[in-house]
Design a protein that fits this description.
The protein is α/β, with parallel strands linked by helices. 35% of the residues lie in helices and 25% in strands.
């Protein structure tokens, strides 16, 4: 999966600036960055929701993506089980009662199966989003702040599921919860002001917090140096 000099404009503002990335397939890439750094915009480009204004995105010929947005989005008039059945239908699967029930049980949604999605709390909206990822047949999973609102039990189940997914799928996850994400990551990308300022395999020797702060420090130092006047 390669991004070549990818740029995205919105209302005349450059949101993504010359993104060059090669990401592992399969494996988990974690996107780190402050609000407004461009993480969500990059996920939307990878999902095909936003089209870049320039540059190219190279994916496998048969690659299918599924995005878990922030905030979670569902059809408000559907119940939890109807929403899941809809996603299963998109995956070309037979919507068997056993498959649907297994997903409800996996993400502890059985007792809200008949509840309208518009009435779900944040925690249950996250669970339903994760159930949708499990239901999809996508080989590229895009997760925007998936750990927001998770209790300990669901977080543990989520991390176990990610370990399983990343053996055969490519996952790109944007998150502020660094200490949990670093236990899962194969690759880490740091973004600032719509740019990639660090991209490398993650070996676990440095905490995400330390790595992020170092990347910001180096980027700001380089920015100041590049703007310094040149002596005659």
């Amino acid at each position: 999966m390669k991004l070549n000099n990818l740029c995205l404009n919105r209302t005349g503002q450059l949101i993504l600036r010359g993104i060059n990335l090669t990401l592992p397939q399969p494996g988990l890439t974690v996107l780190l960055g402050a609000n407004g750094a461009g993480k969500s915009s990059l996920l939307q480009v990878l999902a095909g929701i936003s089209l870049p204004d320039s540059g190219t995105l190279e994916l496998g010929a048969d690659s299918r993506a599924f995005i878990m947005p922030e905030p979670a989005a569902f059809y408000p008039q559907l119940t939890v089980q109807q929403q899941l059945a809809f996603v299963l239908s998109l995956s070309d699967e037979l919507i068997s009662p056993n498959r649907l029930e297994a997903l409800l049980q996996q993400w502890q949604l059985t007792h809200v199966a008949d509840k309208l999605t518009q009435h779900l709390s944040l925690g249950y909206r996250q669970r339903l989003s994760l159930a949708q990822l499990s239901a999809s047949a996508a080989d590229l999973l895009l997760l925007d702040e998936p750990m927001n609102g998770m209790d300990h039990e669901i977080l543990t189940a989520f991390k176990a599921q990610v370990q399983q997914w990343k053996q055969s799928k490519s996952i790109v996850m944007a998150t502020h919860i660094m200490h949990e994400a670093q236990d899962l990551a194969d690759w880490v990308v740091v973004m600032e002001l719509g740019q990639v300022i660090h991209s490398a395999a993650y070996d676990g020797k440095q905490s995400f917090s330390s790595l992020y702060q170092q990347a910001l420090q180096d980027f700001r130092h380089q920015t100041v140096a590049s703007q310094a006047p040149v002596s005659a």
